[in-house]
Amino acid sequence: MPHPVTPPSQPTMIVPVKVADGAAPPPTQAEVSSLLDTIFTAKTSAASIDACYGLCELLLNSVGFRGLQQYGVLAEIKKAAADKKSGLRRESAQNLLGALFERFPPRQPISEAIFLLQDGGMVACALDALADKGSVVRDAAHYGLDALFAHLSAEALVVGLLPALTSYLSKATGKWQGTVGAYRLMQKMADKAKISAGTTKEQAQEQDILREAMGTKLARLIPIVENGMHDLKTEVEKQAHKTMTSITSLLSNDDVAPRTPLLIETMQHPSAQSLQKAIHALSQTTFVAIVTSPVLALLTPFLERSLNTPTTSQEVLRQTVVIVENLTKLVHDPIEARTFLPKLQPGVKSVVNRASLPEVRELATRALAVMDKAMGNDKTNVVERIAGDDVAKVLDAEMQKRGGLADDADVYKALRPYVCDMVAEDVNHRQLHRIPARIAPYLQSIMPGSAAHEAVAAAVHSFYVEEDHRKFGVPEKEDDGEVEIVNADFSLAYGGMLLLSHTNLRLLKGHRYGLCGRNGAGKSTLMKSIAGGKLEGFPPQDVLRTCYVEHNQGEDADISILEFVSKDPTIAKEGKERISAVLEEFGFTAGPEGRQSQKVGSLSGGWKMKLALARAMLQRADVLLLDEPTNHLDVANIKWLENYLKSHTDITSLIVSHDSGFLDAVTTDIYHYEPNKKLGHYKGNLAAFVEVRPEAKSYYTLSASNVQFKFPPPGILSGVKSQTRAIIRMTNVSYTYPNAPKPSLADVSCQLTLSSRVAIIGPNGAGKSTLIKLLTGEVIPTSGKVEKHPNLRIGYIKQHALEHVEMHLEKTPNQYLQWRYAHGDDREVHMKQTRLLSDKDREQMDKFIDVGDGKGRRQIEALVGRQKYKKTFQYEVKWRGFLPKHNTMISRETLLELGFDKLVQEFDDHEASREGLGYRELQPSVISKHFEDLGLDPEIANHNEIGSLSGGQKVKVVIAGAMWNNPHLLVLDEPTNFLDRDSLGGLAVAIRDFKGGVVMISHNDEFVGALASEQWHVVDGRVTHRGQTTIALDRFEDSKPGSAMASAVNSGLNTPNPGSSAVSSAVTSGVEDNGGELKFKAKKKKKMTKKDLKEREVRRRLRHIEWLNSPKGTPHPLDTDDEAE
């Protein structure tokens, strides 16, 4: 009520209620009339309200819901509510209606049907009262509606209250205040259905069924709410806009959600331009998530308008049919397809017949074929929805078996469709456990006997359980004889993001569970919560010992492996002998010369992962939490890990891995992150899971259908006219780590071109990453020479990719990219060892030199310019202590001979970076688009700190940073380690289509086989070339079955003769410019005739005029002597 009330147990008047063992005898008409008279004539609101509660108790304790009609209570309320002369009677009517709404439904649920459906229901009476001129009347009406809303179940809201609201809104005679109230209740219903944290399991179930049931009604709701958005009354328009925002939030579709505000804006201000803008925005959307009826209900009207409008342009028609095709491919339920797609089919057929462009007609024809397939025209095993009438037949039959109705045929006439529709909602959404509660309480008052209503409810429930088993199969029984070690119900959130809502995790001893889901779904967060003892319902460490083995191992570098493991207090008690024995089992040999004596920091990524596994075994873990365990492991060690996990049947494992072969080999069960924020359990390995969920086929193919990466094209390299021209070369290079007894690499010679697709293969610790670091300038070779094109830009992603961003965890990805390229250079390039000035380099800068120009010996201060000179470059030197007018041009060869290698390299890097960034604007909006092209949601890129991102999302940040300056050569050291299957497919397709060179280290045979046309094998510091290989194009989803492609021309690499262990001379096959120094010819100027000069002048003038007519901000085209005209 709108004000405090006296409890019903202490009424201000004498209420004739008799106390008895059963129900009290029915009151007389005079007693009820007396109470009604008191309600409508009381001098104070409090007295009237007390009388209202007294009447409720009198009826509930005797005749119950029957008294509402028998004594004319509802008729009296309607009569008083319409009394225009007496505000007191109108207020009292709403007080009584509010008391009935508050007290009857909890104790006699059958009254819901009376209030909502019988004789038009009472909701409209309360809504009309919202327009009353008296504020107390309006407040009482608000209270009553809120009380009724609070007592209705999710099913009752959808099949009872929602139809009452839509019926009211459809009336042209409704009052605008009532219209606002109806929209407000509809918004409240949608808000209640939203997934939220901090709810109980029962509340979460209510939210789920309400969200799913309302979603199926959106096709009817959206036009009604959209109509309100065009109302002339501002209050109605504003409330309808809020309601539309709430009901469209029920989509639970991450693809469409960012476009929803634009779509709502298009509804509110419909025009050809706004529709075109909406279609364009949808055409830029990569649809990944399953498309359900709520999404189709929202998008179908826009697509239908676009297809059927005669003035729609060919480009918009093309975008529309592409959207229709992409959406339809993701509709997995033929029933939903049959509901919406027939509305679009005539429009698509019209495009096939009338579109002027052949391309548009072809796209429309293809879309039609996809639509026919989606609607199940060629299928016979489609599971049909059931309707309330189907439930009614079952319900009537069961009631007849148990005596039928005792009386109240008129009430049952309204109750029957109400109950049957609620049961139908539960059956269609497979919430069968809710069926008894939708039947028994409603039949309790109208069936003979004390248990007949429960028997009917149980029989109907049993019938639909059997039907469900017939349609979907019988659920597998619980594993007999298995030991259950975990059965936890929990919710999981990270920051302000709800990852899992009221889901269950059940683990059996000895089972190996694969945990699958997209990047950012919360897989690692779940593991860390378990390891940290923060997951609700998961046994603590003293009951069940869990050990988290993650892919990011940051061990101490200055102590031996044996000492490092022994330092752990949970392991030290095992004793040195057992620790050493377990380490030896994992391949860490004992003894002074064994691997146990090596420093932890000297281990490769693969050995560090084995060390982490060894530590887990020493902790005697019951549950192993393995986060990307195959990261950095070579093929032999992955096989070893598979055998190890399968042989230890007493250990339960929960595994996150992008390696489909590994998951197939070891898993016994799969837990999958479902769209409704639940964990779905599937028995069997990954292959069995994909059979059940075909949309998960991306685990077996490299596909960009879910996540798309778009790499920017590399710029032009001056002097490089051929894709097979060497752009970087190593000659007789050796490298030894400080204090290491032997070289990591010895006498290596190799080279790369713009067409290179090279995979570097070898066991853990063989020197693969060292080879990469030498190529990219991360380290300086001990001997030999590394040459590269002066303008070459390299995008490098390290083995431990997160090292790139670990110093910037407080920044957003957008801020990180701004910091990295703020001064026109890549700051990470300046952190390489080949760019850091040593004491020797500083002495070199202080050295006096004479270049033979007659001005004596001077000191170089800096290089300030560079230009082409014959077949090389010459640099403008600024002299220390001299004005710029005394600057001198000195050739590259002269500066290198004088020992200024780093100075030249630094200036070359600056020029290369400036060239690559020439067409890049370091603006947040441009950076945001760059991140979107590389698979990172712009919302995350702009607002989430790097420290809060998942491992896969951080790798996308690293890739975006490496690709910002349009590199010519992409160097990837274990690029697949942190990416999920969808992102892995997107990366593979982007690399395949990249126009520059690629060199990669990866133990993922599927990834390497699909991309690399040649392999460099690194074993014991020696590099050998195993010749051309065939690219397995059939591993891409968009390739034809069985397709394969032979290698392009090899990158140059030394190839030993059979039986020769040493590296021979540089390769002479296939690649241009293999011998001699790496020089690039400048383009020779051609002397132009008068005719040539005149033609050039005309071209330049036309370009200038075109530039004057271009949008503001367009850069002026360059007029150069070597322009391509």
From TrEMBL:
Keyword Signal: no
Record bears the keyword Repeat: yes
Keywords in alphabetical order: Amyloid, ATP-binding, Cytoplasm, Nucleotide-binding, Prion, Repeat
GO biological-process terms attached to the record: chromatin remodeling; translation
Region annotation Disordered: where it falls in the sequence: 1043-1074, 1101-1125
Residue ranges with Polar residues bias: 1048-1058
Main localization, broad class: cytoplasm
Localization (cell): Cytoplasm
Pfam family, one: ABC_tran
Biased composition, class Low complexity, residue ranges: 1059-1071
Domain (ABC transporter) ranges: 483-700, 728-1045
InterPro entries according to UniProt: AAA+_ATPase, ABC_transporter-like_ATP-bd, ABC_transporter-like_CS, ABCF, ARM-like, ARM-type_fold, Chromo-like_dom_sf, Chromo/chromo_shadow_dom
Family stated for the protein in its record: Belongs to the ABC transporter superfamily. ABCF family. EF3 subfamily.
Protein name in the entry: [NU+] prion formation protein 1
Species in which this protein is naturally found: Diplogelasinospora grovesii
Taxonomic classification: Eukaryota, Fungi, Dikarya, Ascomycota, Pezizomycotina
